[in-house]
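Case study: Radical SAM superfamily enzyme YgiQ (UPF0313 family).
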Amino acid sequence: MKVKLILPALAEAESPFWRPIKYSLFPPLGLATLAAFLSPDDEIDLQDQHVENLNLNDEPDLVIIQVYITNAYRAYNIADHYRAKGAYVLLGGLHVTALPEEAAQHADSIFLGPAEESFPRFLANFRDKRPQKVYKSVTRTLSNLPPIRRDLIKRNKYLVPNSLVVTRGCPHHCDFCYKDAFFEGGKSFYTQLVDDALAEIGRLPGKHLYFLDDHLLGNPRFAQELFDGMKGMNRVFQSAATIDSILNGDLIEKAAEAGLRSVFVGFETFSPENLKQSNKKQNIARNYEDAVRRLHSLGIMINGSFVFGLDHDDKDVFRRTVEWGVENAITTATYHVLTLYPGTRLFQRMETEGRIITRNWDLYDTRHVVYKTHGLTAEELEEGYNWSYKEFYKWTNIFNASFKHDSAKHILKHLFYTGGWKKFEPLWNFIIKTEGLNKMLPLLESILSKVEYGKREQVKEIERVIV
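Here is what the predicted structure looks like once written out:
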């Protein structure tokens, strides 16, 4: 059987804000996971439109397409194309689960929720010529999964080919997050067996890892055993965690000992009213500065996430947020315009209040305003969002933030990481076009090396030389 797995490009990948490096980071791990259930005799082709041109002239028997909100229209067009050629087409992913009736018009079968259990059921039905129209995840487990088909991934096209996911979902229930809708009807947070996770890590070449888990520290017992098992593996890794998990106990220290060097943190907003309205309980009454200081004391760089456009935001929110990020030496900042994902409680509330102004899914990219705002006009919100990115990543602010660190090495790491990420787009584009992206991994590993704190005099000397 000829099987084709496709990740269509997101709409923003072709926008004026197109940054090739951003969309060349991680391979389509979900599709490679499903491919592991296929037969060794199947002829399999996995294509990611972000890093390669799709070949639509082939004749597969089975086509599997992963659908996100801003690639939905492109995914539907590809699905219609292959169905017209006689292929059997499957659609799955976040957007399909949120809007199954919409997706079903373009598919022979759709998958709702995670597919590790339902996809093998489909394969058995398909071979018996009895496929169902809808497959819904029932049993939620990551035990006894076959190894991910990483041989299908074109490693040279990605900066971070060693991405992995050892948990599913998140223990929290933020109103703007897709998680509760995607995992409806079963467990919404569960983990691999630690031994299975360590075995997957052991199969990956090189030194660098990126855990794509929504919250790697969400199950403290699992995380502690994982980090204990990773000691001595000589890995450096990046992941995501919450304010709450950073401040509680000593789990973040164990993560640092295992090789954690950079963490994505959802600060989102400084407003207690916004946190309550968003049901982001894990941030309420938490001191963001304490979390930052703890991470910096461990030599961990921070990618801070912030959301603009919540109902209690005002015109000054952009300036305050950028200044806080610089003052607290956040390594990188990811800003978002509040986006209402179908299936979330936020979307339902906005729909009830009559505040949704468009259902053009291409605009649901965290850059455009798709709802009636409070406190800010749509123009003010989009302009403030764009201003925040430009302001935070000005060279003066990059230098100012870098020199907040007490370690000479941390200063240099901050400068190289932040500047390299945002200030050298032509160079990144050249590297991508010449297929040399994967050759940059040693540089990334070097930047993520452990920080050893020295004397303040070293910091002053670096500041004298650079400035």
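For the exam, be able to explain this: The CA atoms of residues 251 and 316 lie 35 Å apart.
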